[in-house]
What does this fold into?
Amino acid sequence: MTDNENIDNQAIQQKQILQALRKFQDGYKKRDLSNIDGFMDLFLQSDEIELIGIGASMRGANEWFQGVEAVKSIIGGDWEYWGDVILDVEGAKISLLGDVAWLSTTGSIEQTGTHDKALPFYLEQMKDILVDEENHDDTKLLEATHFGMRRLRERLKGMGHHWPFVFTAVLIYSQNTWRFHTIHWSMPVD
It folds into this structure.
């Protein structure tokens, strides 16, 4: 393959990766829970896939999801309870090496009326933190308090507030398309 052919091939692959990211953004925009199985086609169908949420600090603990069903479950929760997600799709930086790509971009979550609806969901998450047998009681109390204070802060900021975040992902070329393997959402410390 010549250098020009290699450059052309990479440009095509980058367009395909952007298309996958656009479909991801569209899914979060539409929030159609009846189509969540179709949305999951964007992911590698493997127990190796991961979605690392903004509150994650330890593999397998709060907000660190692995496997198709766990990732599907948190995405469903995002669609039902989270605000409006806006990714900077066109501003994504994409890097490629063979059948693996990684990207980074920014975005924001706009606070919507879903916060009141999410309150019982948040309280269940706090209960999960408190019953985690892996942690010392002081750690449980600290983590649950931090989680609760963050939810309260979100609530007090009110409707229309935009929360900035960074979005990173790894994609694998599988079955003639680019599929998400790992996604990480992160927010600035506040």
Residues 92 and 105 are 5 Å apart (CA to CA). Strands lie at 50-52, 64-66, 84-87, 93-97, 100-110, 162-174, 177-186.
